[in-house]
């Protein structure tokens, strides 16, 4: 099931994303005793993490039974300004009380390929089965249609067996670390948050079937789960809905 929600008020979008996170956490913990979420980087989810860390919402979350992973990471040290982990730490982790072992950081101090293998081992230890079944994966979308660190024309788009890989971004000439499309597609819930006028053209192409080529985000289609798009007014300005 795919749902598209367009918001005139970005704050409302963030609030509803927080409510989705809280409700899914409660349901997952009640049903399976744990809630597993893969977080995304970038500026769009930053206010979401900050909101989840505020005391009024933080008290609604049972952090002892919540495990936080990263859907992708920049190949920089964890204290680097570009680090997704650092952004999440400053906006969420520093504000809450969560067991250290419940936060699963990508070990970017290693060689990129070794870091990817190490993180995949963490995932395989946590999840049983052929593929990981995250309760929630947060994603964004770039102006080129990339999601997580799956970039156009990158080799990682062709990976069919691995869960987590080092993926070289051709246009950026940098290594990135990311969940693969198949690992993402096995999630129970995928939430894609998109904001900004620079995303409007590609978002219309992706969601309304006008794309001249396949963008990485179009490879994301949950097998048994649900997918929700939350887009702000700027990003959704060219959509017909």
Report on the structure:
The chain has 241 residues and is an alpha/beta fold. The protein has a domain of 136 residues: Rossmann fold. It contains 7 helices and 9 strands, in the order E-H-E-H-H-E-E-H-H-E-E-E-H-E-H-E. Helix 7 links the parallel strand 8 and strand 9. 41% of the residues are buried. The mean pLDDT is 95.
Average per-residue pLDDT, rounded, comes to 95
Largest sheet: 6 strands, parallel
Q: Beta fraction of the residues?
A: 15-25%
Secondary structure tally, helices: 7
- The stretches of 5 or more residues where confidence is low (pLDDT under 50) are none
Question: Could you give the distance between the termini?
Answer: 17 Å
Second rung of CATH, namely the architecture of the domain at 9-144: 3-Layer(aba) Sandwich
Number of strands: 9
- How would the global form be characterised? globular
In terms of structural class, how would the helical and strand content be classed? alpha/beta
Q: Widest sheet: strand order?
A: 1-9-8-5-2-3
Give the helices and strands as they follow along the chain. Answer: EHEHHEEHHEEEHEHE
> Can you give the helix content as a percent range?
25-40%
Rg calc:
17 Å
The first-level CATH class of the domain at 9-144 is given as Alpha Beta
The name of the CATH topology of the domain at 9-144 is Rossmann fold
